[in-house]
């Protein structure tokens, strides 16, 4: 895994030696960020990277000009690796690492940065088998409703075959993309 564009282009990310993970490929990451450029993201954005693992998406956003990233991960061993990746990228001042269950906490912003413009939601696939009303994902999007700025974007990564509802509270689906065995659903805060 590596950062593929921006100021830290080519920087290799440390990752766990033996652990079940779902790293996003460089090609898919590049495609995802190409889609985000349509929405003028991530440059200048306050970003949340939930279920972040070693920080691939959040660090990519920082390399491409994001202002600040809140990383949320609950595994302390993975957080140790994440912190090393943040330090290697010289992103300590632009980052906050929170050890928590992102389903319960969402993306708490730092006191000086305001609400998020972009949030990556990348939970284990098993946690998104149910995406209906009352599901873990639905409850998380309720929490994010108070943490995402007006017109903010939430990107949800799921397994192929999982189709999110068209609306979750404040958020409505604006795009659906499929790359290989994964689906990315992009939702926008409609402010309703």
Task: Give the SSE layout.
Elements lengths: L25 H12 L8 E5 L5 H8 L4 E6 L2 H13 L6 E5 L2 H4 L10 E6 L14 H9 L3 E12 L7 E2 L2 E9 L2 E8 L3
Parallel strand pairs: 1-2, 1-4, 2-3, 4-5
Antiparallel strand pairs: 5-8, 6-7, 7-8
Q: Can you describe what's shown?
A:
The model has no long low-confidence stretch (mean pLDDT 92). The protein is 24% helix and 28% strand. 40% of the residues are buried. The chain has one domain (26-189): Rossmann fold (3-Layer(aba) Sandwich), CATH 3.40.50. It has an 8-stranded mixed sheet. Strand 2 (68-73), helix 3 and strand 3 form a beta-alpha-beta unit. With 192 residues, the chain is an alpha/beta fold. The termini are far apart. It has helices at residues 26-37, 56-63, 76-88, 102-105, 136-144; strands at residues 46-50, 68-73, 95-99, 116-121, 148-159, 167-168, 171-179, 182-189. The longest helix has 13 residues, at 76-88. It contains 5 helices and 8 strands, in the order αβαβαβαβαββββ.
What's the quick description here?
This protein is an alpha/beta fold and 192 residues long. Helix content is 24%, strand content 28%.
């Amino acid at each position: 895994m590596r950062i593929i564009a921006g100021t830290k282009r080519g920087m290799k990310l440390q990752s766990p030696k033996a652990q079940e993970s779902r790293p996003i490929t460089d090609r898919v990451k590049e495609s995802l960020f190409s889609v985000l450029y349509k929405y003028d993201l991530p440059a200048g954005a306050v970003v949340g990277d939930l279920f972040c693992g070693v920080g691939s998406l959040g660090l990519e956003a920082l390399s491409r000009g994001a202002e600040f990233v809140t990383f949320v991960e609950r595994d302390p061993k993975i957080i140790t690796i994440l912190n090393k990746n943040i330090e290697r990228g010289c992103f300590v001042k632009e980052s906050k690492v929170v050890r928590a269950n992102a389903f319960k906490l969402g993306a708490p912003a730092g006191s000086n940065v305001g609400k998020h413009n972009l949030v990556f939601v990348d939970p284990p696939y098993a946690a998104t088998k149910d995406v209906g009303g009352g599901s873990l994902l639905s409850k998380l999007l309720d929490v994010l409703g108070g943490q995402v700025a007006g017109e903010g974007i939430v990107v949800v990564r799921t397994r192929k075959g999982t189709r999110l509802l068209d609306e979750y509270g404040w958020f409505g689906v604006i795009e659906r993309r499929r790359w290989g065995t994964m689906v990315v659903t992009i939702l926008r805060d409609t402010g309703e």
